[in-house]
Amino acid sequence: MHPRTTTSGRSAASVNRSNRRRGPLAGRRPGIYLGVAAAGAVLVNVLVGPQPAATAEAGTATESVAVAQALGLSAQSGPAETAPADLQPLEDLAATRSSREAAETAAQQSQAAADQATVDRQRAEAEAAARAAEEAAAAQAAAEAAAAAQAAEAAAAEQAEAQADAAEAEEAEAAESSQGAATVASSTAASVVARITNTAGSVKPQVQAAANTVVSNVPGADGITLGGTRASAADPGGHPSGLALDYMVMTDAALGDAIVAYHRAHWDELGVDYLIWQQRMLSSPNGSWSTMEDRGGTTANHYDHVHVNYN
């Protein structure tokens, strides 16, 4: 008969299958026993009633130790007490990382503050330099304006002074002309023949006649030298042509002024073209004197004689 078909055979097979199913539980029995013991301890604590915390903890610990000893387990072999030692490096690492991040954040904030302070200082320095430049430019402009105004005032004063001097000179000249005209206006007749020194032929007849009239009517003119023609003269329409005379008054400036005044008073009668006296030229009886260039000497600048060009 086959073993599986008998009762005993079925029982043996059932036992074998049961043993095979329970095989893996053999390694987990200590943990199960420990869990059952802990649950029993909790149940005992609930049934006994509330105790002081120290007594309950002590009783629970004692019962747990007793149960563990009964099961053949060591109280030191559980993972509960080894966990804090395993987690301590992680906690230290986390604390170190937190401290480092805080230090880095503080350093970044400090650097940002320093950078901002530098930017603020540079901006303030630039603004101060710009203000100083503007103030310097304004001061320079004010100084230049003041100098220009002062120069303008000085120029205006000089011009006014020059105009005043010119007006005084014209008044004095007009007074001299009036005085000379009043002195000689009554006489144009010639009573004396003028002695003229010529080195290049005779002067023109109208020039001789004018000289005769001048020496006859201007006191002191008949005793001076009269220069006539000469080839060395620079003006071909003057001395070389016989149309000019030099009344050599030498240092007698009053006599020179009198001869000039007489010619101005009788400009048309004498046929005057122009006069030169004391480095000035006069081209009309009522005109103004024109200053001539400096020719370098008393005679060349006509300070010792009156030059008259006749038509």
Automatic annotation (TrEMBL):
Coiled-coil residue spans: none
Record-annotated membrane-spanning stretches: 30-48
Stretches assigned to the ARB-07466-like C-terminal domain: 200-303
UniProt KW keywords: Membrane, Transmembrane, Transmembrane helix
InterPro entries to which the protein is assigned, alphabetical: ARB_07466-like_C
Pfam families attached to this UniProt entry: VldE
Keyword Transmembrane helix annotated: yes
Chain intervals for the UniProt region annotation (Disordered): 1-28, 96-130, 159-183
Comp. bias (Low complexity): 8-17, 104-117
Basic and acidic residues composition bias: residue spans: 118-130
Descriptive protein name: ARB-07466-like C-terminal domain-containing protein
